[in-house]
Amino acid sequence: MTTLLFVRHAHSPWVPNREAERPLSASGYAAAERVADQLADHTVDAVVSSPYERAVQTVEPLAERRGLAVERDDGFRERALTDGPVETIGETFESAVRAVWDDWSFAWPAGESSDEAQTRGVAAVERTLDRHAGETVAVGTHGQLLTATLNRYDDRFDVTFWREELTTPDVYEAQFEDGDLLAIERVYTPQE
């Protein structure tokens, strides 16, 4: 059995056109430390992350406490809605996101559909399961990508989950055997 600890990144302030470089906020750094604290009793053999700064910074405290390097895998990066600000396509962030969740095959210009994001995320999961068979791996990722990926294994992970249940940060422990998801549960308690 291989266990993946999916870590949705902590708070990061919005910076237009800097999706990959956006760092954590001060509260985000504190939350990343809480993630490491809450996973202190978990075995962690490896840490893999989206290359986006906020995802890496969220799992760095955990990696540092374990003496592990953070491996980067582009497959865990956030879904690209379009190649620039959504306002250039005449949409708000909310309306642009709603369109790709309402129709999983729809994509904005130079963006990814939910189907495409899911396929990329599942391929990253499969690579991680192959590279780290029998281990426990913390995976730094993003809310929409995580939701679309987990939906492949369990359809309760949908837009409602993303909007109403997933927090920033959040951690879900998923157990896999032979590529199949056996169980998944939330293992993070947000600060009140």
Please describe what this structure looks like.
With 192 residues, this protein is of the alpha/beta class. The protein has one domain: Phosphoglycerate mutase-like (Rossmann fold, 3-Layer(aba) Sandwich), CATH 3.40.50. Helices cover 38% and strands 18% of the residues. It contains 6 helices and 6 strands. A 6-stranded mixed β-sheet has the order 3-2-4-1-5-6. Strand 2, helix 2 and strand 3 form a beta-alpha-beta unit. Helix 1 packs across helix 2 and helix 4 (114-131) packs across helix 5. The N and C termini lie far apart (33 Å).
Category by helix and strand content: alpha/beta
Strand content: 15-25%
Q: Return residue spans where pLDDT drops below 50 for at least 5 consecutive residues.
A: none
Distance between the termini: 33 Å
SS field, number of helical segments: 6
Number of strands: 6
What about the largest sheet?
A: 6 strands, mixed
Report the CATH architecture: 3-Layer(aba) Sandwich
Mean pLDDT over the residues: 95
What is the radius of gyration?
A: 16 Å
Shape: globular
CATH superfamily: Phosphoglycerate mutase-like
Helix-strand sequence: EHEHEHHEHHEE
CATH topology: Rossmann fold
Helix content: 25-40%
What is the C-level CATH assignment?
Alpha Beta
